[in-house]
């Protein structure tokens, strides 16, 4: 029906846009043949069965001191690998993570076979090709040309870092359960006083207002704090997607944003502020879509994941900039974070950035290899062997997070999109480089909001991701800016960040008492489940934040020992 209407020569530009995005959206979810639809239902059943079994899996590690099995989630195992001071415990937790690979391998083979069968019934060579074309608007060949370029340019950096790590820390540093622990810099305790949780909302709002980011009368419900039985993952979604009606009036978006903050925990303020910058970036993006259909501004495919993540990751990247911290990482007494704390963190972590970026490559390279296998080649033994081969190629040996333990691979909606994080990181650093070359600074730059809105945000999913990056930066998406950041000399990094820090000490553009809501043009509702704690509908942001701070101090008051 839609394709029939698209042939109408009398369509207006707006009608053409609406029908085109509807066609693209339906192609992401509807099957073109009865056979494909039947296979799709089989996939749903297979995925549901694996999800149930995976959730019921006896996961954990054997305590090396007692021999006792200790149940632990994959998140808990990863945290222990990163933070436990006992190497034997870290190794046991790594082996616990590896156990996931063997558990999921056989059922995953059947899912991959079915996914490929469905994709071929829809006219694609395999499932990965199907997902990339429908979701990202590019083919698999183009995607891996981009990823291969990044992989080849960062491989020498990885090899150098790993060699240095062994020379400085010993041969044990090469073991997957040791690397993360040995390179993890932790200044969380020292940073904590400068990121008070109850000031996070104000800092986020003032930072965005200083960049002239406008939310176009949208409503944002912020449910930040953890509670019993709350959904166990933070997210941002849009029950009302924005669009422009045929009469020219705008429908403003409604954003629901939830996180799992524990206000009394060390580091909770930094996590809350980073999350606000990230999810607030998503919300700003969607609030500025000005297209004739809500299909252009809904959060799922064909909305490019790389495109969406570029917006949020660009804005949360500011939290790591020394000039931004000088302005917004401020204690309750009004003292900015000392340079010495920032310097210590840079010294501890900068040289090892390549490890984080490389490990993200494991998933797309692994999935590409999986979906190129024939049905006969798809065996549990073979896909575990390929996982080890991919980790060896990308990380030089076993990865700290075994690739088959990454849950995205199992779930249909999340499968074949992990590449988006690498693409988004490239776009983030290319965007940062563009603004730095044009203006010389990012923090409190009043040009950033309008330029992001004009070049990235207003078009929604009507323009392919790669075109958008080139439209703003003037160059095709490339790995160069991200690679330059990774390989930057430590002394040069310290010198540049210290200079930025000194400039940032002049303070933020807006104080906590300034009325910035006319700039943001939004309504902020601070909620806790069904409880409305505070809102800017009638109060100023300052009054709203004060009410929220008072509520936090009462609701999360430290428990006294009886």
Average of pLDDT: 94
State the strand order across the main sheet. 4-7-3-8-9
What is the β-strand count?
9
SS strand fraction: 5-15%
Number of helical elements: 24
What proportion of the residues is helical, as a percent range?
Answer: 55-70%
Which of globular, elongated, flat, extended, rod-shaped describes the shape? globular
Using only C-alpha atoms, the radius of gyration works out to: 24 Å
Largest sheet: 5 strands, mixed
Task: Explain what the structure shows.
The chain has 24 helices and 9 strands. It is α/β, with parallel strands linked by helices. The mean pLDDT is 94. A 5-stranded mixed β-sheet has the order 4-7-3-8-9. The chain is globular. The longest helix has 35 residues, at 87-121. A hairpin with a 5-residue loop joins strand 5 and strand 6. Helix 5 (87-121) packs across helix 6. Helices cover 57% and strands 8% of the residues.
């Amino acid at each position: 029906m839609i394709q029939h209407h698209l042939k109408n020569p009398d369509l207006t530009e707006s009608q053409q846009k609406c029908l085109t995005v509807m066609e693209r959206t339906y192609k992401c979810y509807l099957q073109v043949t009865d056979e494909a639809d039947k296979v799709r239902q089989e996939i749903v059943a297979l995925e549901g069965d694996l999800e149930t079994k995976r959730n019921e899996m006896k996961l954990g590690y054997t305590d090396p001191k007692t021999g006792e099995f200790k149940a632990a989630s994959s998140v808990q195992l990863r945290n222990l690998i990163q933070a436990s001071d006992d190497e034997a415990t870290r190794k046991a937790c790594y082996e616990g993570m590896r156990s996931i690979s063997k558990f999921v391998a056989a059922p995953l083979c059947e899912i991959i076979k079915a996914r490929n069968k469905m994709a071929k019934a829809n006219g694609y060579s395999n499932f990965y090709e199907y997902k990339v074309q429908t979701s990202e608007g590019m083919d698999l060949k183009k995607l891996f040309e981009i990823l291969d370029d990044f992989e080849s340019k960062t491989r020498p950096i990885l090899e150098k870092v790993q060699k240095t790590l062994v020379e400085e820390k010993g041969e044990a540093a090469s073991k997957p359960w040791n690397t993360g622990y040995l390179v993890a810099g932790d200044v969380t305790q020292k940073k904590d006083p400068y990121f008070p949780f109850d000031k996070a909302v104000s800092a986020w709002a003032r930072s965005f207002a200083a960049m002239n980011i406008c939310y176009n009368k949208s409503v944002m419900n912020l449910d930040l704090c953890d509670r019993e039985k709350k959904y166990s993952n933070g997210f941002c979604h849009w029950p009302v997607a924005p669009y422009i009606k045929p009469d020219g009036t705008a429908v403003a978006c409604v954003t629901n944003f939830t996180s799992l903050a524990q206000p009394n925990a060390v580091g909770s303020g930094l996590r809350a502020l980073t999350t606000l910058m990230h999810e607030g970036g998503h919300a700003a993006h969607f609030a500025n879509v000005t297209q004739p259909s809500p299909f252009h501004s809904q959060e799922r495919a064909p909305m490019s994941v790389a495109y969406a993540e570029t917006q949020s990751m660009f804005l949360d990247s500011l939290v790591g900039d020394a000039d931004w911290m000088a302005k917004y990482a401020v204690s309750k007494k009004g003292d900015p974070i000392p340079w010495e704390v920032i310097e210590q963190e840079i010294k501890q972590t900068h040289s090892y950035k390549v490890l984080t970026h490389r490990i993200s490559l494991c998933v797309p390279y692994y999935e590409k290899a999986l979906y190129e296998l024939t049905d006969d080649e798809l065996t549990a033994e073979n896909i575990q062997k390929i996982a080890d081969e991919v980790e060896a190629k990308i990380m030089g040996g076993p990865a700290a997070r075994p690739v088959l333990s990454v849950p995205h691979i199992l779930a249909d909606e999340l499968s074949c999109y992990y590449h988006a994080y690498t693409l988004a990181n490239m776009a983030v650093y290319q965007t940062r480089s563009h603004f730095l070359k044009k203006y010389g600074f990012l923090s409190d730059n009043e040009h950033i909001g309008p330029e992001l809105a004009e070049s990235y945000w207003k078009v929604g999913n009507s323009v392919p991701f790669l075109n958008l990056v080139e439209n703003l930066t003037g160059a095709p998406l490339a790995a160069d800016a991200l690679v330059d950041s990774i390989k930057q000399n430590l002394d040069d990094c310290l010198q540049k960040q210290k200079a930025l820090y000194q400039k940032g000490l002049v303070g933020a553009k807006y104080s906590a008492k300034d009325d910035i809501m006319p700039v943001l043009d939004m309504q902020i509702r601070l909620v806790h489940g069904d409880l409305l704690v505070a809102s800017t509908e009638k109060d100023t942001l300052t009054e709203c934040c004060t009410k929220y701070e008072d509520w936090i101090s009462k609701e999360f008051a430290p428990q006294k020992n009886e």
